Amino acid sequence: MIERHGQGRDLRSSVVPRVGSLPETGDVWEPYRLLDPAGVVVEPVAVYLKDLQGIGRPATTQRSYGMDLLRWFRFLWAVRTPWDQATREEARDFSRWIQISDKPRQVGASATSAVLNPVTGKAGPGRTYAPTTRGHSESVLRGFYDFHSDAGSGPMVNPFPLARRGGRAHAHHNPMDLYRNERSGLYRPRHVQRVPRSIPDEKFNELFAQLGSHRDRALVAFWVSTGARASELLGGRYGDADPGQQLITVVRKGTRAIQQLPASPDAFVWLRLYQAQMHGLAPTGIDDPLWWTLRRPFRELGYHAAYRMFSPANAALGANWSLHDLRHTAAYRMARDPGMSLADVQWVLGHAHLSTTQLYLNPRKLHQTGEKSQVAWSRRGTAGLNSLYELAA
To answer: To bridge 183 with a disulfide, which of 162, 252, 277, 352 should be the other Cys (CB 3.0-4.6 Å)?
Structure first.
């Protein structure tokens, strides 16, 4: 436990036990439950997760928010403070602890350091929590307490307040730009804009050659030609693939909008080979999952299983690319296609702001390859875009 000494807590030798859990229930009405050390449901979190479901947040988002709340409740249990009696002092100490303390590791796992991978140039997972993790955690906890404050079931003052503002809001606002919220969380870390990393063409060919099944090749081919997020493609149904128009339908993350994306002919070839391999083994109704595990009992393929599929190919090359790097690769290729405008690329990627898409106009972070091959591959990957525009017209 973390004890108080004098005017504050001694966090130098702090230990936050890994108690409590966030198990998956298999119940669509309550996908995840936060349990305390005694195995009892933490009711304030259960109510909050139900509200997230009510406003349309998918189960993956509920799990992400639940993990942030589990980390906060573990800290509160360690400092022996009820959740509804937490003050700015607890929020401050938690923000200090999450910056400096080591991330929990599985039994037998070795400590990791953020060293650069010689193949990809990407840093591996560090010993401590990343700024993006800390920022996401601060936003979730502030929203959690705002929810209970509005409902009258939590403290009157949010322990995670907004930053103090000096001067008039929007004092130097450009009238050509959108108004944005100028205030952020007081304990939110500074955001550092990172240059998206893509996979060079020659390395992508080597990576693709390491994939062990038609399903894996189809998935990677779709990811690198459509630019869809990993979860968006994995959530596809059997009737979402349209080989005749070279389009595949996805449900966008966040907006939950249904959108058809153009894909490369190669992706549909691998998809057909995968479907022939699974013929008679998995249901093929129009609303049945498109992607299945390859071992019995057959189950719908989830994100973590797909990530494990990608890991052996990475290990064979000594690389540490992620599934999201395939989206970056697709974005770079489309942005360098002379036949696509930046607005087209924004639409395909589903970006809310054009400024996000403009990041892919910057020089690639990793090894440069010939633009000729990138443009040719991009044209193949967006072959269905013109037909989609014709259908829309």
So the answer is: 162
CA angle 294, 299, 305 (to 5 degrees): 65
111 neighbors 70 (Cβ within 8 angstroms): no
Measured distance CA(226)–CA(260) in Å, rounded: 10
C-beta of residue 129 within 8 angstroms of C-beta of residue 99: yes
Rounded to 5 degrees, φ, ψ at 8 are: -160, -170
Each residue of 334-378: pLDDT tens digit?
Answer: 999 999 999 999 999 999 989 899 999 877 654 444 444 333 334
Cβ–Cβ under 8 Å, residues 49 and 65: yes
Residues 329, 333, 336, 341, Cα dihedral to 10°: -100
Inter-residue contact 286 to 269 (CB < 8 Å)? no
Contact between residue 217 and residue 270 where contact means Cβ atoms under 8 Å apart: yes
Q: Is residue 261 helix, strand or coil?
A: strand
Please enumerate, as own/partner, the contacts of 186-191 that have beta carbons within 8 Å and a separation of 24 or more. Answer: 186/160, 186/161, 186/162, 187/91, 187/92, 187/95, 187/138, 187/160, 188/134, 188/135, 188/138, 188/139, 188/163, 189/99, 189/131, 189/134, 189/135, 189/138, 190/131, 191/131, 191/135
Q: Are 279 and 212 in contact (CB under 8 A)?
A: no
Among 205, 230, 252, 235, residue whose Cα is nearest residue 308:
230
Q: What is the pLDDT of residues 40-93, one digit of tens each?
A: 999 999 999 999 999 988 888 999 999 999 999 999 999 999 999 999 999 999
Closest CA to 145 of 132, 165, 161: 161
The Cα 70–Cα 34 span in angstroms is 7
3-state secondary structure of 56: coil
DSSP-derived pairing of the beta strands 241-242 and 258-262: unpaired
Residues in the chain, how many? 393
Q: pLDDT digits over 94-131, tens only?
A: 999 999 988 887 655 555 556 889 898 888 888 889 89
Only one residue has tokens 């999201």, namely 324
SS3 label, residue 95: helix
Q: Please tell me the chain's helix, strand, coil percentages from 3-state DSSP, rounded to the nearest 5.
A: 45, 10, 45
pTM over 0.70: yes
